[in-house]
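Working notes for the structural subgroup meeting. M.R. asked for a predicted model of this chain before we commit to crystallization trials. I am recording the input and output together here so anyone reviewing the notebook later can reproduce the run.

Input as submitted:
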Amino acid sequence: MNAASFALILTGVLLNAVAQLLLKAGTNTLGVITPTLSNAIPLSGAIVTNPHFLGGFACYGISVLVWILALSRVPVSIAYPMLSIGYVVNAFAAWYLFGEMLNSGRWIGIGFIIVGVYLLTRS
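Returned structure, recorded in token form:
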């Protein structure tokens, strides 16, 4: 895999990770979301006017376009597992931004992901 292909994959992964973080920030502003028939319209309005949700949707949309470019250059058997980099990014970002815990089990999992991604890029 060349540097340009890796950059496309990494850009797609990071956009996807940012989208997740923005959606989480949006849910933090709304609280627990419980959709019902009676609140469907107000809830939809609250979501589509929330800047965090809008940013998350935009990041997802752009990430799909970048991902298509990446898939045109890299086999899906290499590209798709690289999405796991997003788990590592989000674990640290969620710890930093939202105060989520990084316990020993998560650290071990992050280590496995990093080793796995390294092995994939070397194959």
